[in-house]
Amino acid sequence: MVYQIINKNDLCEYYNLNDTPGINQRIIVRKDKFAFLDDEKIQSRLISFKDDAQLRATFYLPQMHCSSCLYLLENLHKLDADIISSIVNFTRKELDVVINPSKSSLRKCVELLTGIGYEPYISLNDLKEKRPALDRSMIYQLGIAGFCFGNIMLMSFPEYLGVDASEEGLRSIFRWANMFLALPVLLYSSLPFYISSWKSLKHKFLNIDAPIALAIIITFIRSAYEVLSGTGGGYFDSMTGIVFFMLAGRIIQDKTYRQLSFERDYTSYFPLAVSILKEEKETPATLPEIKAGDTMLIHNEELIPADGILSKGKAFIDYSFVTGESLPVLKEVGEIVYAGGKQTGGNIEVLVVKEVAQSYLTKLWDQQDLKKQGQKKSVSFVHLLSRYFTYIILTVAVITALYWLIHDKSHLWPAVTSIFIIACPCALLLSNTFTNGNILRILGRNHFYLRSPSTIEDIAGIDHIVFDKTGTLTETQEQEIHYEGQHMSELQWMHVAALVKCSSHPLSKALSKHLGKTDLEVEHFKETTGLGIEAYINDSFIKIGSADFVGLYKNTDTSTRVFIKIDNRIMGSFRFDNHYRNAVFPLINELKRHYWLSVISGDNSSEKNNLRKILGESPAILFNQKPEDKLQFIKQLQQKGQKVMMIGDGLNDAGALKQSNVGVAIAEQTNNFTPACDAIIEANQLQRLTKFIRLCKANKNIIVSSFVLSIVYNIIGLFFAVQGNLSPMIAAILMPSSSLSILLITFGSSTVLARWMKLT
Fold first, then answer.
1. Per-residue confidence at 622, pLDDT binned at 50, 70, 90?
2. pTM above the 0.90 mark?
3. Which parts of 203-332 fold into alpha helices (H)?
4. Distance CA 424, CA 622 (A)
5. 3-class DSSP state of 39
6. Is the predicted pLDDT of residue 151 greater than 60, yes or no?
7. 447: which of 394, 440, 565, 682 fits an S-S bond (Cβ 3.0–4.6 Å)?
8. What is the H or E stretch that residue 58 is in?
9. Are 338 and 352 in contact (CB under 8 A)?
10. Residue 540 in contact with residue 569, Cβ under 8 Å?
């Protein structure tokens, strides 16, 4: 059926890549089965974004199980030209679909998916019902294997105790009973190993399940021959024990991995906050606190974290994170705005209609096109080792079999089967995954959030740290602000307050706090990154920003100033006296012993002497840097072979953050989330940056140590196995035990180290 679908739509190049079959096509039971999807209220619960050009939705497809599924689902646009794109998240069994709403609909898409055998699971109770439980077949396989293994062990007592020859009839009955009990284990409980081995063979590659499956089949055939020929009782106890203990270890590993994989999806993993209006007061609120009915105040360049209705102001929403289209979309009062858009005009107020869809923001965070491209990653030696591991084991098994065939045939089968069982790179492969998972968990609990496990390795390899100054080294919440200039009327002060309130730049936020609240309407707001802001307020044209921005080109003052220009007349300026974060000085003193440090800032050089005292003479301290200058500075360092970590506020530093090997954005009561960064750190945790870096470095040492331990285990196990001194059943117990011991070591080491660093 899948072949017919693929062939009909000219997708047969798939068979050059993969021969794994898909699932059978199903037929929609009734024509109006999905008529409920024509209801706009129901659609609004399923749609994550919609405009005139595209409609986006995510479906959970529990039937998805192999690469055929993935290939077919990611080529839906060839089955239906009205589907713009479809992307599969295989581990979560999710499909992200983009549809042309003018030519197709959500219902038509769901009917297509159902027609090719992938009916989406849709819950209509606010989409909060639990998804169907994960496949429990392995649990059933384990239960059957355990039942058969236990009974075979009991009925094998005559063999163990050496029953007298006069009881040969009783012993024969037990042997036949053992063989029949072993059949469900052979034909059902062992299926995961057969399926995995067969798929690897179809790809002309031997994975680690191949020797395990081979050991099971060989052991059963040998045992059945002995029973049928009356020459012995076979190794049914060992065979069923192998399957039972292997399945038990695999289930525990899968359960642990699943717990780690999804722990990072919780809302608390994003230190984003947004301003909520309560009783006409602006109050910062974290994303989990945002509820339907709240009114959010969104400033310029801030991300909209939840779907809502525009209730005040004029919105120019940049949906480039969602659609890739850079032109802002105009929204009027009463229109819906979707999570993921960024406001590029003045302040707007949004009435929340749907609580924060964290999974949607997670997709923004995980979008591949927003990550750094083209950076080659070194391939870990463990992957190279596992690639040839099975061939090495097969070679050892053949040599061992030939040796015992010549010297002592009684040792042949125990030795060969033990080799297949005891030698496994599972611990090697798992140590990297589980150590990284635990480190991510520890860092997340300390409000340092990494995009992916690979960021841990990148952090461990840095040798140069570049800081932005304003909002990073300095604390915008505590500044001394002085006005110097001509007298301004109360109305003009209100104009200034209204304008700075629209910007989320650290200096604007500090100035807004200093001047107080105002309700004047701002029109034609525009912010020039790194320079200043401008708008019309009550027919007056206001510009606030740097000296160059307002047209004062002969300014020789080196202090941090924000100039005011009203109707082409420069009124004066605000002088800011910087307040460095309390932890900055000890942090820099500690970091400069191990790393090159630099500071790049868009401000003037008034703080150069202070920074030079802290940093010393060697690092670069650059001022009056535009965003593109910061990016070029990072490039120059990388061209010299340095691995750079850039730490900035995420507003004017997006280019530099993306260019750096590790881009870290500081979050401080503002929704300045940027997918250009690799990590987000809460401002009050900056003082612990050294500890975070040390933990990432230790991560590599822990993994290498577990690799060494695993290799030693395999060598020792093989040493005894080739001699025929190791029972296959004991080998089956030791194999998952070794994997679990590696997990305990990696978890234990990283957890103990974190506690020693006082990070837990």
1. confident
2. no
3. 209-229, 236-263, 320-323
4. 54
5. coil
6. yes
7. 682
8. strand 55-60
9. no
10. no
CA distance linking residue 220 with residue 222, whole number of Å: 5
In sequence order, what are the beta bridge partners of 394? none
Cα(603)–Cα(626) distance, integer angstroms = 9
Note whether 237 and 152 are within 8 A (CB). Answer: yes
pLDDT at 727 over 70: no
Tokens describing residue 759: 């990070």
3-class secondary structure, 30: coil
Calpha distance 194→190 (Å, rounded): 7
Helices and strands of the chain, counted as H and E runs: 26, 26
Other CB atoms within a 10 A radius of the CB of residue 214 amount to 20
- Name the nearest CA neighbour of 56 among 64, 72, 44: 44
Whether 328 and 377 have beta carbons less than 8 Å apart is answered as no
Written in H, E and C, the secondary structure of 541-571 is: EEEEECHHHHCCCCCCCCCEEEEEEECCEEE
Exposure string of 717-749, with b = 16+ CB inside 10 Å and e = fewer, is bbebbbebebbbbbbbbbbbebbbbbbebbbeb
Beta carbons within 8 Å of 4's beta carbon, 6+ residues apart: 25
- Highest average pLDDT, of 75-84, 233-242, 368-377, 700-709, comes from 75-84
Phi, psi for residue 117 in degrees, rounded to 5: 100, 15
Min mean pLDDT across 154-168, 474-488, 693-707 is at 154-168
The answer to whether 97 and 83 are in contact (CB under 8 A) is: yes
Q: Is the dihedral of CA 460, 461, 462, 463 positive or negative?
A: positive
- Mean pLDDT over each residue of the chain, to the nearest integer: 77
Structural contact between residues 247 and 144, judged by C-beta atoms closer than 8 angstroms: no
Q: What is the b/e burial string over 343-359, where b = at least 16 CB atoms within 10 angstroms of the residue's CB? A: bbbbbbbbbbebbbbbe
pLDDT, tens digit, for every residue of 271-291? 567 788 887 777 877 777 788
What's the Rg (C-alpha) of the chain?
Answer: 32
Long-range contacts of the stretch 122-129 (C-beta < 8 A, 24+): 122/46, 122/59, 124/36, 124/42, 124/45, 126/45, 127/45, 127/46
| 147 closest CA partner among 185, 191, 200 | 185
Handedness of CA 576, 577, 579, 584 (dihedral sign): positive
State the Cα–Cα distance between residues 215 and 724, nearest whole angstrom: 15
Is the sign of the CA dihedral 268, 271, 274, 277 positive or negative? Answer: positive
Q: Which residue has the tokens 């021969």?
A: 19
- CA 524: distance to chain centroid? 38
CA distance 686 to 614: 17
Alpha carbons 664 and 679: distance in angstroms, whole number = 5
715 by Cβ neighbours in 10 Å (0-12 / 13-18 / 19+) ranks as exposed
Helix axes 381-407, 426-445, angle to 10 degrees: 150
